[in-house]
Batch of 2 targets.
Target 1
Amino acid sequence: MINAEVIKTGNENSLNLIRRFTKKVQGSGVLTRVRSIRYSTRKLSPYVKQKKTLKVLKRREEVAELIKLGKMSEYTRGGKK
């Protein structure tokens, strides 16, 4: 990653310094790179995938059993309507 640095020169006011820093950051492309990876998630490891899948399958079996026993009514995927 590139660091954007500006040094105050002579009698430069703070507003000009901030403006110069902003332009330097935009020119370096740091913001576009950070925004592009902001919401990306990393891949799950095969072990974690397997654990999640087994958990879902176990829950499905439990729900199916409860429906058979009449302790739970069948549900729709869309939620309550």
Note: The chain has a mean pLDDT of 87.
Target 2
Amino acid sequence: MDGRGVLADLLGNAPEWQERALCSQTDPEAFFPEKGGSTREAKRICSRCDVKADCLEYALGHDERFGIWGGLSERERRKLKRRAA
């Protein structure tokens, strides 16, 4: 598990899709770059992930404010939410 669902995992209620996520098999730092850091590697991994849509839905539903989720950055998720509203 890569830091994304650590609390959920500790509580025993991590979403089932997280086990199949490619990010759970890679370096978590790629998904949580420092401000101004590159998101390219994380987005590349997300683009090949079978649970990308589940991940994005989770991030939007849980108001995740940090990191790359479902192939989108925090800024991109905010734009998506504004357009959907």
Note: The helical segments are 6-10, 40-47, 52-61, 74-84.
